[in-house]
Specification:
Layout lengths: L2 H28 L8 H24 L8 H17 L5
Helix pairs in contact: 1-2, 2-3
Length: 92
């Protein structure tokens, strides 16, 4: 992938992650999100986790073998995991 392709992709990335990054950076300045964490990367990894969840749902549905855990419980665990990761270490 060359510079021309990247130039077209970067604005799309900004649409996906820019808002979350801005909020997390504001939280960093206020001491609510650890300074050692990269807000953009954190938003990206959260997005990847959600895509993984949706992929597992699709695989299970195609096999007609529903997931053992409810969507609500799984989403709660994802949110808890990312909240705990965001807060781990305080606002260092």
């Amino acid at each position: 992938m060359g510079p021309d392709e990247l130039e077209r992709i970067r604005p799309i990335n900004d649409m996906l992650y820019g808002g979350v990054e801005a909020r997390l950076r504001a939280d960093q300045r206020a001491g609510g999100f650890p300074k050692k964490r990269d807000p953009r990367r954190f938003a990206f990894t959260a997005h990847m986790a959600v895509i993984g969840f949706l992929n597992m749902k699709a695989i299970a549905a195609s096999a007609k073998d529903p997931l053992i855990h409810s969507d609500e419980d799984t989403i709660e665990d994802l949110c808890t995991t990312f909240r705990d990761a965001a807060l781990r270490g305080g606002a260092k």
